[in-house]
Specification:
Blueprint: H1 20-36, H2 40-52, E1 54-57, H3 65-88, H4 97-104, E2 111-115, H5 119-127, E3 134-139, H6 149-162, E4 166-170, H7 173-178, H8 181-197, E5 201-205, H9 214-226, E6 231-233, H10 245-262, E7 267-269, H11 277-291, E8 303-305, H12 308-329
Parallel strand pairs: 1-2, 1-8, 2-3, 3-4, 4-5, 5-6, 6-7
């Protein structure tokens, strides 16, 4: 269910400072789980989930019709092509849960994420395929967000009119660091109204490493959710520093409080610099541990990445071969 948002409530911005003591412990546990490793069955299911929740992204200044066509083709065919032999080799184990999962799963990312002017190219490329994939578009003056609200709304409307099913909007970090959360709320509320009219998912990018403190991250996350964001997202991917799991802990704390207060579940999307399966698995464990298994689905968990897919598929191929070896031994 889409998050409708609530009236701006300044009391919701208050954060329990005692929670700071938990951050290091929580992050260490996520990293420990990833380093120790998982049983092959568990790791395979997690890697399959990472593919399913991925927003395969291309936001380069050199993007054109050909690069977007390649992006769509990669999203729809790469995983199946690379894992075809591994999955077929499991065909002797029809009762195997993993075999059933990987033969019924789409094995495709959730969306392709492109700039607003490239949405039409993505639509054209998808129409030439036998399968469908949703299109997410960054909009609203990406990546800085420092353009007039009217211009931001116009770009969001344009992206939706071209075929975007999801909008990744960026905030004005200058306003956040000044503490003007009331204005940020009303700006995002105006954009939310456009998305509601188009039945479009709204993801709000916080650019957490450009915010001046954990408290500001928490306040901005809460403001975005009160304004009706369906997801809060860590980064544009253009920042000088990438988001850390510690930022993710703060965002999860805000999501939990919002859910416990309103009953509305809001998703989380880490993005920026996530290139290796170990990084993505650590984020998955964070979400699982802090938000629960209910969040381990594409409607509440995404990962934005441009080059992660290759590494996840490479690792998944290795794990599937391990499973085959285990079945033969048994």
């Amino acid at each position: 269910m889409s998050n409708p948002g609530i009236l701006f409530d300044e009391t919701m911005l208050k954060r329990n400072e005692d929670q700071d003591e938990d951050i290091v412990t929580i992050v260490d546990e996520c990293d420990r789980c990833t380093k120790v490793g998982f049983l092959p069955e568990v790791e395979a299911s997690y890697l399959g989930l990472l593919i399913h929740v991925m927003d395969l992204t291309s936001l380069n200044s050199t993007d054109n019709q050909k690069t977007i066509e390649a992006l769509v083709n990669k999203a729809l065919t790469f995983t199946k092509k690379m894992l075809k032999t591994d999955i077929e080799n499991m065909a002797s184990y029809h009762s195997c849960e993993m075999y059933n999962y990987f033969t019924t799963s789409t094995l495709t990312p959730q969306t392709v994420c492109v700039s607003s002017v490239r949405v039409a190219d993505a639509v054209q490329s998808i129409n030439c395929q036998n399968e469908h994939i949703d299109i997410a578009s960054v909009a609203g003056g990406f990546p800085m967000g420092q353009v007039p609200l009217s211009s931001r709304i116009t770009e969001v409307e344009y992206a939706i009119s071209q075929g975007a099913a999801e909008i990744d909007i960026v905030i004005d970090r200058g306003l956040a660091n000044m503490g003007d959360f009331n204005r940020l709320y009303h700006d995002l509320r105006s954009i939310k109204s456009v998305c509601v009219n188009g039945d479009v998912t709204l993801k709000t990018i916080l650019s957490v490493t450009e915010l001046d403190s954990y408290h500001t991250v928490y306040k901005m996350a809460m403001t975005a959710m009160m304004a009706g964001s369906d997801f809060i997202k860590t980064s544009t991917g253009k920042e000088a520093e990438n988001a850390t799991l510690s930022h993710g802990v703060i965002m999860c704390q805000a999501i939990n409080k919002y859910y416990n207060t309103t009953g509305y579940k809001v998703g989380i999307k880490p993005a920026g610099g996530i290139k290796f399966n170990e990084q993505a698995l650590s984020w998955l464990i964070l979400v699982k541990n802090q938000l629960g298994n209910d969040w381990l689905k594409a409607s509440l968990f995404r990962i934005g990445a441009s080059s992660l897919l290759e590494d996840v598929v490479k690792r998944l191929s290795i794990v599937l071969k391990k499973l085959q070896t285990n079945y033969l031994k048994n």
